[in-house]
Amino acid sequence: MKNFNEIYERVYRETENILEPIRKKARNENIYMIIIAIFLALLFIMTRSIIAVIIILISGFIYHFFAKSGKKYKTMFKEDIIKKFVKSYSENLEFYPTRGIPKATYNLARFEYYDRYYSEDLITGTLEGGYAINMAEVKTETESTDSDGDTTTYTVFHGLFAEIELNKNINSCVKIRKNSISLFNKEKIEMDSGEFEKKFNVYSTDKIIAMQLLTSDIMQMLLDFKKENKVVPEITIEDNKFYIRFETGGVFEAKLMKKALDYDMLKKYYDIINFTLDLTEKFLNNINETEL
């Protein structure tokens, strides 16, 4: 795998001249339609006339036509930039924008209760050593219905989720969660690092295994990542599976108002993927060295 600047330069050379003109065209069309929509709204408010309604309907059809440029760009962004970006990171990884991680797989990590589940933008393949990995955008929602029968939908989680297959079964469960008020839980473990305790809660069915796996260097990695990226990684290790998620919001989406090869956006994706693989490797080393 290459460092970020090498990947960025390669993808830039191969895609910038193709995608940037398409992005600019889609951006300009979007701006024009926003201006027209504002004008039509003011026209309708001031006149309340049939002619204004007809103009608005016609404009709706025009917008639908222009929106195709934006959709085309967003599709090409994933196919031409993200797919090349993932492949440049590692030849053993593939990107499938229309596929996701199954709901049943996400449920195995036991993160939260929800009513609706969505997943797309799958990265799949193998790590060095042959460990299978699946990573994708996941969004979960819950619903609440009031006494009048009105239903409101709330986002519970929206970000990146990964599942990695380990080569050894720890025969227990270790969960690392962002720090929150926790009622009495017999599985909660007090760690040696006071700084880590302020940011994370650790739960396990086997305290000894949890302490052996969650070493000081791994705790520091988690703290450093949170500080640098303003994102709290949450982890579940159970039997021979490693699960990790990052509450980043939507990922791998084209932004019309930003350059196709936006450096900071791609660097954010790189850091998350790289951190996940580095952290997994450290956990794998600890698991292999642990008497189970």
Brief descriptors of the model:
single chain, 292 residues, alpha+beta, nine-stranded antiparallel β-sheet, 7 helices
Question: How would you characterize the overall build of this protein?
Answer:
The protein folds into two domains: 4-89; 93-289, no CATH class. Helices cover 49% and strands 23% of the residues. The chain has seven helices and nine strands; from the N terminus they run ααβαβββββαβααββα. The mean pLDDT is 84.
Summarize the structure.
With 292 residues, this protein is of the alpha+beta class. The chain is built from seven helices and nine strands; from the N terminus they run ααβαβββββαβααββα.
Secondary structure: elements and pairs:
Elements: H1 4-47, H2 50-89, E1 93-96, H3 103-107, E2 116-126, E3 132-145, E4 151-165, E5 173-178, E6 188-189, H4 194-199, E7 200-204, H5 207-213, H6 216-229, E8 234-238, E9 241-246, H7 263-289
